Amino acid sequence: METLSKHEVFGGTLGYYRHASTSTQCAMRFTVFVPPKPTGAGLIFLSGLTCTEENFTTKAGAYRVAAELGLTIVVPDTSPRGDDVPDDESISLGKGAGFYLNATQEPWKKNYQMESYVAQELPALIEKEFAVKKFGLFGHSMGGHGTLTIGVKYKDRFHSFSALAPVCNPSVGGWGAAALEAYLGHDTGQWAQHDATQLMKTTKGDLPLILIDQGLADGAYKEGRLNPEAFVAACEQVGQPVKLRTHEGYDHGYFFIQTFIDDHLRHHAQQLGA
Amino acid sequence: METLSKHEVFGGTLGYYRHASTSTQCAMRFTVFVPPKPTGAGLIFLSGLTCTEENFTTKAGAYRVAAELGLTIVVPDTSPRGDDVPDDESISLGKGAGFYLNATQEPWKKNYQMESYVAQELPALIEKEFAVKKFGLFGHSMGGHGTLTIGVKYKDRFHSFSALAPVCNPSVGGWGAAALEAYLGHDTGQWAQHDATQLMKTTKGDLPLILIDQGLADGAYKEGRLNPEAFVAACEQVGQPVKLRTHEGYDHGYFFIQTFIDDHLRHHAQQLGA
Questions:
Q1: Domain range spanning residue A106?
Q2: Are A8 and B254 inside 8 Å of each other by CB?
Q3: Interface test with B, best of A4, A5, A9, A32 (most B CBs within 10 A)
Q4: Closest listed residue to residue B114, CA positions, set B183, B41, B50, B164
Q5: Are residues A253 and B217, on separate chains, in Cβ contact within 8 Å?
Q6: Are strands B158-164 and B210-215 parallel, antiparallel or unpaired?
Q7: pLDDT tens digits for range B194-239
Q8: Are B45 and B74 in contact, with CB atoms under 8 Å apart?
Q9: Are B31 and B14 in contact (CB under 8 A)?
């Protein structure tokens, strides 16, 4: 693991790092905020389409309260990167659009193994290098999709969950269906394993309370690309506790994230016992 | 004035705007945050080298406390822009490097009239369009230079002042001397009108308390490009109240700004009676 730069912020330290990933077979970048008094609780934040590790790190305004609560915050990139990694001209396929799954189709399957990266390789590295003992997971948009799908599948790894404007039902259209088909092939049975709404219906509803925030002026929401209501209905079907808050006037961007991020940090700190 | 986009944030509204400036003879962009309950107090933030209106707006994390205090916040670009505007390959001359002065030399003098823009044209527009009644001025690096020089010269317009890692003595080297020569010519007497340290020595020290924050791991500071100590000495010479706070470990970037911005907002709110 190579340290690219380090910056003091709110009495803690924000570092940019790069390492050779075995999951994605390329160099992956991420940032880590270490609070002045770490509690051992760490959060991984999954970003949305087109983002890198930089967007949340510079724009979310999360580190003030993370410092106060003693939370370590890790922000990975959204896909494999590099000249040898396949890409697509669509913003919702290829670089910046890994969808937090393990691709099974050519040309994607060699590098696009973001599920393994985020659920296994990255937390193992963070545990070792930054002494994090217990992880929570949260994310925005495509990263909300990653949070809710990985959350269901890796209950032993992650112990608290929240999402901002998550993509909740990608197998039925909007952002997601085209990517799921490209990465996973035509068998829609496979897609269900990467659709939070369908996955939730197969569980016992035994995750801790999931917090979701959604802006009502969010263009993607209004176009039906997010569909948190479908996810909430699936939760209700299996008795999974979920809290969906809607906010008049807020859109899909980082000003929305900034406004509500503190509530997410407090939600995770409480659930992780930080 | 044209509205480019608007975003809800912390219960207020952040807008991106563009207008045809008579000072700089080109289209100028700026952002305005209007808090949920405006008090009539407004701050203009002047950014550093290479920045546009975007950097502070997305990275400073200022709107949470601005919303709480009822402060309107205006962030202009750092120079004239457009294909017809002269530029230079140096990061400290031309676009992104207006130095908040009125250039007298070719090819700069037509468009590089940022002092008039920031001290007169922009606040007049904001007064009219956003009902701001009383202005404060603050800034970072080159924008700290702009704050302290314009602060001395336009006492009737601005009523509170603060700076983060300001360029305090540009006429004697570091960032600034080359730009001052290009914009103002060889007469160093003219440069003194755009050097906060020299200007302060000519005053009665009758500005309200000026707050300055400086990180001690700031590369520009360590190389002598900022020199807040010279400015503080000039203040002491004329009896001007000034508070310079230094911070171990903090560098020159927006993580430093994020960490201390709330203190600046509270400083201005108090001085403006917001």
A1: 2-272
A2: no
A3: A9
A4: B183
A5: no
A6: parallel
A7: 999 999 999 999 999 999 999 999 999 999 999 999 999 999 999 9
A8: yes
A9: yes
Q: Do A8 and B61 touch (CB under 8 A)?
A: no
What is the domain-level CATH number for residue B89? 3.40.50.1820
pTM score, whole prediction: 0.96
Domain count, chain A: 1
The widest CA-to-CA distance across chain A, in whole angstroms, is 50
CB atoms within 10 A of CB A235: 24
Token pair listed for A43: 């959060």
In whole angstroms, what is the distance from residue B138 CA to residue A97 CA?
Answer: 39
**In this predicted model, what pLDDT tens digit does every residue of A127-182 receive, in sequence order?**
999 999 999 999 999 999 999 999 999 999 999 999 999 999 999 877 789 999 99
Asked if A26 contacts A12 with a C-beta cutoff of 8 angstroms, the reply is no
Q: Which amino acid is at A173?
A: G
Cβ neighbours of B249 in A, within 8 Å: 8
**Which of the 8 DSSP states describes residue A209?**
P
Above 90 in pLDDT, residue B63? yes
Beta strands in chain B (DSSP E): 2-9, 12-21, 26-34, 41-46, 72-76, 134-140, 158-164, 210-215, 242-247
**Amino acid code (one letter) for B61:** G
- Closest C-alpha among A115, A200, A190 to residue A150: A115
List the structure tokens of B133. Answer: 């009644």
- Is A141 considered catalytic here? yes
Judged by DSSP in three states, B29 sits in strand
Helix (H, G, I), strand (E, B) or coil at B105: coil
Give per-residue burial for B178-200: e unless 16+ CB within 10 Å, then b: ebbbbbbeeeeebbebbbbbbbb
Two structure tokens written together for B87: 């530029």
Residues from chain B contacting residue A260 (CB–CB below 8 Å): none
Of the candidates A30, A50, A8, A34, the one whose C-alpha atom is nearest the C-alpha of residue B254 is: A8
